[in-house]
Design goal:
- The complex is a heterotrimer of chains A (394), B (253) and C (471).
- Chain A is mainly alpha-helical and 394 residues long.
- Chain A contains 16 helices and eight strands.
- In chain A, the strands form three sheets. Chain A has a three-stranded antiparallel β-sheet with strand order 1-2-3. Chain A has a three-stranded antiparallel β-sheet with strand order 6-7-8.
- In chain A, a hairpin with a 2-residue loop joins strand 4 and strand 5.
- With 253 residues, chain B is mainly alpha-helical.
- In chain B, the strands form two sheets. A three-stranded antiparallel β-sheet of chain B has the order 2-3-5, with no helix packed on it.
- In chain B, a hairpin with a 5-residue loop joins strand 2 and strand 3.
- With 471 residues, chain C is mainly α.
- Chain C has four domains: 55 residues, no CATH class; 43 residues, no CATH class; 298 residues, no CATH class; 43 residues, no CATH class.
- In chain C, helix 2 crosses helix 6, helix 7 packs parallel to helix 14 and helix 10 runs antiparallel to helix 12.
- The chains are: A mainly alpha (394), B mainly alpha (253), C mainly alpha (471).
- At the A-C interface, helix 4, helix 5, helix 6, helix 7 and helix 11 of A face helix 10, helix 13, helix 17 and helix 19 of C.
Chain lengths: 394, 253, 471
């Protein structure tokens, strides 16, 4: 076997086929056998030119593509796009859309349910990378229940295409609210077991505590967002600080990292991010319950616009001639901040749609914090940032 | 590390292991005593049927009897996988001759069904690619198209119904005629291409030319008949008038 | 000169000689049968079926069904071969009708319900996959490492006692021999990792060697403790030292003799998990990190042999654990009645008992695998050198002290099972045994409680996650 020797170091290629890189990510790792001295991410294996495709599709046609920007939390991606387009339309007086109340509540409910199911993958995949296969399966089981609810409402389990400019496509299926409540109750119980099994397990904490802590200054300067930012101790959540939709009507706490691993850990290490995500699941459950309590009932009329595009003539008209201008709209996705920078030239097709995602910025900090880690720690690190490659490569 | 710290680490390790083992033992017991009421996480597909709810976005189906060929679905599709053509048949009736959805491109987003004004285009609960397994709205299991050279093959209602009946039946009960018909519409290796064809009455260019010719002939015949009738009426009129004229001139004896 | 590995091969050679085969070949044949039988008859079948049970247990823990492969493929294949002139649909229809046949039907139904076809599927898969070596691989090392891996565990089976007379050999230094040959596994993993021309496999190999070599020390210390307690290094002797007549034969087992021995049993089991590369110590083949680790580049039957080597290591380690601490092949109850049975029956019963013990041990290893996450290599080394080795040394010391204290209080053991022991066996009377347990157990418990009180409590948010009050 040839070892490319540069002094005493080997250059390894971790990926793009690798079980632990959460997608087709390639990391060029320079190591002396176990300790890493340099790590350079090599991305682009999942690039699908989504932003360029947006320049050829009409505003309403792009929603299925936003599903694929981050398919683990597709509802949140949908939400971000439709909110951005509605905000763009709101800059013009004639094109401002009135979104039905019930549609707003359904949007928040589904976005939060999707946040829960996305964190199930985030937490579960991380434990699987650590070698504990059982908690992953149980977390995925809960995700399946969320997908069952989504499937009955919108017909799909992964790429929902459920939100549209002006509202949502269909109303909730009959019995959805009861199913959601039952799911939330069951989820609390399962998550307690999950945490008792793995989150407080000595071995698991030992794998994550003190591993590559990200300082608050680094987190800010590299553009981290979401739980990655909050894990480093910065208290910022777009839903609370710059609310969009109707998020200002709900009360919820924002978990912030506080060196949860105790003496073994450091502020901003993998364990802090893991616990922040777990606590966010609890907060999402809280928001969902408030939504279910406050949601206005369906009116029962056949043509009651839940705001669906095919129903709402106002939306159709507005999208044919949107106002000229640009807008940057930010949403809190489970993986961080998803921002859409839309440039409109007044036609029914966007001039430019730029997608800013949390995972891309999270990946950018790897070169800085990887030196000194071991290879097993690198696997833990990728999992703790909850990086998914569709977001990174788009 | 102090001795107490050392002891504590060992004890914590043992505790974590014991607690984990207790939890997984409970999972094992729950799974062993599972009553199969659907609370299990997995479905033993295909022995057990897949749980597909109503409103599932499966394969598309267009009931072409109701379709008006407005082409809204073609415009709405983000992938441009729908194409259609319509013509007049020999009875001068508007007829969809081709309605194709390329199911290998379709992303099952449902935008086309959202925009369809008549509701003829809808998504079914079928999701299995093997057409022998998916059931279409008419109860048959044949939703996909076959060989490319058969893209222009004409299939009238009777043949489509026959195909539905054949594919819904148990293969061992088919007659030889049915088998021959099935083999006609199948690839040599039993392969199928992922086109969905719903048009009821396909026209080859020759058939189209024939239909145009028949239509033009009937139109010409109709015009000729109309012209002859008009000529006859004119002739009668002329005869009447000339009779009147003659009559008035000749007078009655 | 007669060649023999014990009374069983003697009687077998006599039987062959009685059938007309000359003396030397019959002895060699007898030895071959006796040596092959445990490996081929016990280890291979268990290793073949073990993957099915592993997957089923995994499914059980994860609330799913595990493998559910029916026998349809096999039945279809057999019908295709037997009725090759019929059209395909007729053959299939006949195959489906077999499910309603009187005897075969319920059997096929059982196979389907338990998914037993997975055993056949896994086996056939191993044979059918392409056997290749990667480009630039060192062919000799690459192909040889599988055989060395198997050698590492089969050599140890040579001294393993399946019953009083059913063993391949009983050297007086069997324990020492065991410690020596189990290290071969490390060599084979390193060879496999290096020769694959794959950096990730190389990592797997290096990690494995570091881990196995480190964990040899606690294992050797535990074996030494038991040898010291039993007064002999021969495995049959250790088993004999645990013999107790009467209904409650399990009171003789080393696990219950002293708290130090119980602790040493724990140390041995943990170290043995590491020797087998089983979770939580499976970082040499860490699936999430290294895909397949040292065996990434192996496919087909070669991979199957590594896999069998791993399971036979598990069997071996479970068997040695049973031999050292659980009385070996002896039954927990009424052992003296079993000893009095005729030789063949005694051999069968004893072999069945030791099989049950190591199957339970394998089940426990599988249970642990699906519970615990994986260690990192430095944590593994940490565990070995800072925790297990001091603990094993402490227990060795403590066992020596206990033995000294007890040795003045009991008579020398008489001859047991017709075997001799090289040193007096310590047989504490009930009072001394109880005192030793209470005193030592109490001290340890006090230490544990004192240590736990010093620990820092969990932070409020983590308690909130667990649903505990006051968060």
């Amino acid at each position: 076997m040839n070892l490319e020797r540069d002094g005493d170091y080997i250059t390894l290629s971790m990926g793009p086929h690798h079980p632990a890189t959460h997608g087709v990510l390639r990391l060029e790792v320079t190591t002396d056998g176990e300790v890493i001295t340099a790590c350079k991410p090599d991305i682009g294996y999942l690039h699908r030119s989504i932003e360029k495709i947006a320049e050829n599709l009409e505003w309403y046609q792009f929603v299925p593509y936003t599903d694929r920007v981050d398919y683990v939390c597709a509802m949140n991606s949908n939400h971000a796009w439709v909110c951005a387009v509605e905000a763009l339309l709101a800059t013009g007086a004639e094109t401002k859309l009135e979104i039905p109340e019930r549609a707003q509540y359904i949007r928040v409910l589904f976005a939060e349910l999707n946040r829960i199911s996305s964190h199930m993958i985030g937490l579960g995949a991380m434990t699987m990378d650590m070698g504990a296969f059982t908690p992953f399966i149980h977390a995925i089981g809960q995700r399946e229940l969320v997908n069952d609810i989504f499937e009955k409402t919108c017909g799909a389990r992964l790429t929902y295409n459920y939100m549209c400019v002006g509202g949502v496509v269909r109303d909730l299926h009959p019995g959805a609210e009861d199913e959601a409540r039952a799911f939330l109750d069951g989820l609390e119980k399962v998550m307690r077991e999950f945490h008792a099994l793995i989150t407080t397990n000595n071995i698991f904490v030992g794998r994550l505590a003190g591993v590559a802590p990200v300082s608050a200054a680094d987190a800010l300067s590299y553009g981290l967002s979401g739980p990655n930012l909050r894990g480093s101790g910065i208290d910022f959540d777009l839903r609370r600080d710059k609310p969009y939709g109707i998020y200002d009507r709900f009360r919820f706490d924002v978990p912030v990292g506080k060196r949860f691993a105790g003496d073994r850990g450091a502020l901003g290490d993998g364990y802090d991010r893991f616990v922040c995500r777990s606590l966010e699941v609890q907060e999402s459950i809280r928001i969902c319950r408030q939504v279910l309590d406050q949601m206005p009932p369906a009116s029962g009329k056949e043509d009651d616009p839940v705001g669906g595009w095919c129903v709402s003539k106002a939306a159709q008209k507005a999208l044919r001639k949107p106002p000229v201008g640009e807008i940057y709209f930010r949403c809190e996705n489970p993986r961080g901040e998803t921002g859409y920078h839309l440039v409109s030239d007044g036609t029914k097709v966007p001039y430019r749609a730029k997608i800013r995602t949390g995972s891309f910025c999270a990946l950018s900090i790897f070169e800085k914090i990887c030196p000194g880690l071991m290879i097993a720690d690198l696997v833990a690190l990728i999992g703790s940032f909850d990086i998914v490659l569709p977001e990174v490569d788009r | 590390m102090s001795i107490l710290g050392w002891v504590r680490e060992i004890v914590e390790g043992v505790e974590a292991t014991a607690h984990g083992l207790a939890t997984t033992a409970r999972y094992l017991k729950d799974n062993a005593t599972d009553t199969g009421d659907g609370s299990a996480m997995t479905v033993d597909y295909p022995v057990q049927p897949a749980r597909v709810p109503d409103g599932y976005r499966g394969h598309l189906f267009n009931a072409v009897d109701d379709c008006t060929l407005c082409k809204q679905c073609q415009r709405a599709c983000p992938i441009d996988c729908i194409s259609m053509e319509g013509e007049l048949n020999e009875n001068a009736k508007f007829h969809i001759s081709r309605y194709d959805i390329d199911l290998s491109k379709c992303i099952y987003c449902g935008l086309c069904t959202q925009i369809c004004p008549t509701g003829s285009l809808r998504m079914t609960k079928g999701f299995e690619i093997d057409p022998r397994n998916s059931v279409n709205e008419r109860g048959g299991r044949y939703l996909y198209r076959m060989r490319p050279d058969q893209t222009r093959r004409r299939m009238d209602t009777l043949e489509v119904d026959r195909l539905n009946r054949i594919t819904a039946a148990d293969p061992s009960t088919l007659s030889d005629d049915d088998r021959a018909f099935l083999s006609e519409v199948e690839d040599e290796r039993g392969g199928r291409f992922l086109f969905a064809r719903f048009g009821m009455g396909f026209y080859t260019p020759e058939e189209k030319a024939e239909a145009d010719r028949i239509r033009a002939e009937r139109k010409r015949a109709k015009e000729q008949a109309a012209a002859e009738a008009a000529a006859k009426v004119a002739a009668d009129q002329a005869a009447l008038q000339s009779d009147q004229a003659h009559g008035s001139a000749g007078g009655n004896p | 000169m007669t060649l023999s590995v014990g009374p069983v091969s003697d009687s077998l050679a006599a039987w062959f000689a009685g059938r007309g085969i000359p003396a030397l070949p019959s002895e060699i044949l007898a030895i071959a049968v006796v040596c092959a039988l445990p490996v081929l008859g016990i280890v291979f079948p268990i290793a073949g079926v073990a993957q099915y049970f592993e997957r089923k247990i995994a499914g059980g823990v994860q609330r799913r069904k595990g493998p559910m492969v029916g026998a349809n493929g096999i039945v279809d294949l057999v019908c295709d071969l037997l009725l090759f002139w019929q059209p395909r649909w007729k053959r299939r229809a006949f195959a489906r009708s077999l499910e309603r046949a009187p005897v075969l039907g319920p059997v096929l139904g059982l196979v389907r319900r338990w998914g037993l076809g997975a055993i056949a599927a896994d086996g056939v898969k191993m044979f059918l996959k392409e056997d290749m070596a990667p480009e630039g691989a060192d062919k000799l090392l690459f192909f040889g490492s599988t055989y060395v891996a198997l050698l590492g565990s089969f050599l140890a089976f040579a001294v393993f006692p399946f019953s009083q007379s059913f063993h391949m050999g009983d050297p007086p230094v069997a324990a020492l021999y065991l410690g020596a040959v189990t290290g071969l596994v490390a060599v084979s993993i390193l060879k496999a990792g290096w020769s694959s021309n794959n950096k990730w496999s190389h990592f797997g190999g290096i990690r494995a060697v570091a881990m196995i070599v480190s964990y040899e020390t606690p294992i050797t210390l535990s074996i030494a403790t038991v040898c010291m307690w039993s007064g002999t290094m021969s495995l049959q002797g250790i088993v004999a030292a645990q013999f107790r007549p009467g209904i409650l034969s399990f009171t003789g087992w080393n696990l219950f003799q002293s708290p130090f021995l119980a602790l040493v049993a724990g140390v041995y089991y943990v170290a043995a998990l590491a020797e087998c590369n089983r979770a939580p110590f499976d970082l040499s083949e860490g699936e999430s990190e290294l895909v397949g680790g040292f065996h990434t580049e192996y496919s087909g039957l070669r991979w199957g042999l590594f896999f069998i080597a791993e399971y036979s290591d598990m069997i071996l380690v479970g068997g040695i654990f049973a031999t050292l601490f659980l009385g070996g092949y002896q039954s927990p109850f009424l052992e003296d009645r079993i000893v009095a049975l005729p030789p063949l029956a005694e051999a069968l019963v004893h072999t069945a008992i030791v099989c049950a013990k190591f199957l339970a041990s394998i089940g426990f290893m599988m249970w642990i695998r699906w519970t615990l996450p994986r260690f990192r290599i430095d944590q593994v080394m940490n565990l070995a050198w800072t925790k297990l080795v001091p603990l094993a040394l402490l227990c060795l010391f403590g066992t020596a002290l206990t033995q000294l204290w007890l040795s003045g209080r009991v008579p020398v053991a008489p001859v047991v099972h017709g075997r001799y022991l090289s040193a007096p066996v310590v047989r504490p009377d009930l009072l001394s045994w109880a005192i030793s347990w209470i005193v030592v157990g109490g001290l340890l418990a006090a230490l544990v409680v004192w240590a736990k009180k010093e620990g820092s409590p969990k932070p409020a948010q983590v308690r909130k996650l667990l649903g505990e009050e006051g968060a």
